[in-house]
Amino acid sequence: MDMTQWLDVGPDHASFMAAKRARLAGSPPLYFRTMPGSQRAQAELLGTVVAHLLADHATAFGGDAAQVFDRLDGSRHEIAASVREPLATLSDLVEEDFVLFEGQGQDTVIAASNAYTSSGRIVSCVGRNMHFAHEPVPGLNAALAARIDRVIGNVQAGRPVVRFNWFVTPIASRLFPERSHAANIAAGEAAARALAEDYTRAGDTLWLRVERQTFLRLPETGALAFGIHTYSDPLSVIAQDADSLRAIHHLLGSYSDERLAYGGMLATRGAITRWIEDRLAA
Prior knowledge:
Elements: H1 13-26, H2 28-31, E1 32-34, H3 39-56, E2 61-63, E3 67-70, E4 76-78, H4 86-91, E5 97-101, E6 109-113, H5 130-134, H6 140-154, E7 161-169, H7 180-195, H8 202-205, E8 207-217, E9 224-234, H9 242-254, H10 257-262, H11 269-281
Antiparallel strand pairs: 1-6, 2-3, 3-4, 5-6, 5-9, 7-8, 8-9
C-alpha cells in the first residue's frame, strides 16, 4: 500500500461521522477500550494520522498538528491541547476504526476503537490476542491463525499493507445495529423469505459489505496499527463485473454451511447464486 492511500474519505463523510461520533459517545465500554501504557502508541498513531490527512487529504482537512478542522462537516478537533486519550480524538476525526497491537513480535491488543460493529468482540480483545477475536468464526483459527500471526509480525515500518474481506447482507448501514451478529442472521432469514418469491430482487435487496483493512508499523513505539474502513454498496454494483460475479459464486459454493451461517449468508445463498448465474448468462 502506498502511504498516500492509507485512509479514505467517503462521499457520505459528514453524515457518517455524525453517526459514528454519536455511537462512540453513547456507549464507550462497548466500542472503545485501552490498556494502561498504550498512550505513547496512541499518540504516535494520532500524529501519523494528522500528518497524513493534512498532506494527502487537504481538500477534506485543514489546520496543523495542534488543531485539525474538517472542511466537509465543519467540525474542529483539538490535537495538542486535547485532554482525551489520543485514540478517542482520532476516532472522532476519521472514518476508520483502529486497533493497536504491542510492538514487534507481539500480537496483544493494547487499544481498540470499533464503531462499525456493535458486537463488542474486537474491543473485548484488549489485553488478549487476535486468536481470541477469531474464535467465533468457524474454522478460521485452525486454517489461518498461523498465517495471520506471520502477517502481523512481518509488517515493517515504512512498508504498510492492505487487504480486503467481504460478505453479503441485507443490512445497508455501515454501522451495524446492536447485537450485530444475531441481527445480521435474522435479517438474512427475513430477506431469504422475501427472495424466495422473487430472487431477481437480490441485487437491490442485498448489500455487499467490504472491509478495507490496513496494517501500519509505527516506527517510534513499534506498535502495529490495524485500520478498518467499511464500505456498503448494493449487490447490484457488481452486476456487470464478470470476474467478481464468478469469484463470489465460487466462494459461496465452496464455503461450508457452518461458515455461511456464521456470516448470515446461508439463508440467502440460493437467491444470490441464482441472481449471479443470470448475470453471467446474459
